[in-house]
Automatic annotation (TrEMBL):
PROSITE patterns listed in its UniProt record: HTH_ICLR, ICLR_ED
SMART domains: HTH_ICLR
InterPro entries: Cro/C1-type_HTH, GAF-like_dom_sf, HTH_MetabolicPath_Reg, Tscrpt_reg_IclR_C, Tscrpt_reg_IclR_N, WH-like_DNA-bd_sf, WH_DNA-bd_sf
Keyword set, alphabetical order: DNA-binding, Transcription, Transcription regulation
Name the UniProt record assigns to this protein: IclR family transcriptional regulator
Organism: Parasulfitobacter algicola
Annotated CDD domains: HTH_XRE (cd00093)
């Protein structure tokens, strides 16, 4: 949940600086001031001050080519430290790559990021030539299978801290029922945030984050039909996550409610 700017404990300048770092995506060939301002919603003058500071600290680099900024060595080091501390990602790499190859889908790890979920890691089928969603891409909680899996497994206190609408409460409740009945979630067609991607998701208890994350399988609707999600890909994803839970000694993410 994003802290309100009126909270005296909330450091607005730090939040704005971090929003610049979060604006970068894996496919970017650097970003200009204008592009950073567009992605973050910050004024150009603020972006200019923040990029100078972050460059001085090594979190951004600026080689002068076309006035584009890139993530710098300090950001790379921090990312490597973060990745190394999340052990289940490395342990599960082969399981998830095999799942991507077996199903012909993009397998993703999604984490909650305020009112959205962010793809933190992806596994592509070997030989896939098309451009797929990439790490750093953010999708809505409401209307995505990953978002549904996360909020369905999220404890009540954390969920209520999101100030959920009635629609999100219903979205979560039906996702919980899906997890109990079949072990995976699918966003209903009428709420799907995109008409170009279908996906099925399963929550996973990430003790490193203190809350569930979601693994998902996604593809174009013509390749990943609702029938295939329910009868083929969904069960395969569920079984892969169960295997990852087994070898990492993690408890299931879903806690049954009374």
């Amino acid at each position: 949940m994003t802290k309100p700017e009126t909270d005296r404990r909330f450091a607005n300048t730090l939040a704005r600086g971090l929003s610049l770092l979060r604006a970068f995506r894996a496919s970017d060939d650097g970003l200009t001031h204008s592009e950073l301002a567009e992605r973050t919603g910050l004024p150009n003058s603020t972006v200019s001050r923040l990029t100078f500071t972050l460059s001085e600290l090594g979190f951004l680099s600026h080689a002068g080519r076309m006035n584009r900024y890139r993530l710098g060595p300090a950001a790379l080091a921090l990312g490597n430290v973060a990745a190394a501390s999340v052990s289940f990602v490395e342990v599960g790499h082969q399981i998830l790559q095999d799942l991507a190859d077996q199903t012909g889908t993009l397998v993703s790890l999604a984490v909650r990021d305020g009112e959205k979920v962010m793809l933190a890691k992806t596994w592509r089928p070997v030989g896939a030539a098309s451009i797929w969603l990439e790490p750093g891409h953010r999708i809505p909680v409401f209307g995505s299978s990953s978002g549904r899996a996360i909020v369905a497994a999220l404890d009540d206190t954390r969920f209520q801290a999101m100030n959920p609408s009635d629609a999100l409460c219903n979205f979560r409740s039906h996702g919980y029922d899906q997890l109990i009945a079949q072990g995976f979630t699918i966003a209903p067609p009428e709420t799907r945030y995109s008409t170009t991607v279908n996906a099925v998701a399963v929550p996973f208890h990430a003790q490193e984050f203190g809350e569930p994350v979601a693994f998902s399988c996604g593809a174009l609707p013509e390749a990943l039909t609702d029938d295939r999600m329910c009868n083929d890909v969904g069960p395969a994803l569920r079984d892969s996550v169960r295997e990852l839970e087994r070898i990492t000694g993690r408890s299931p993410a879903l806690v049954r409610r009374g």
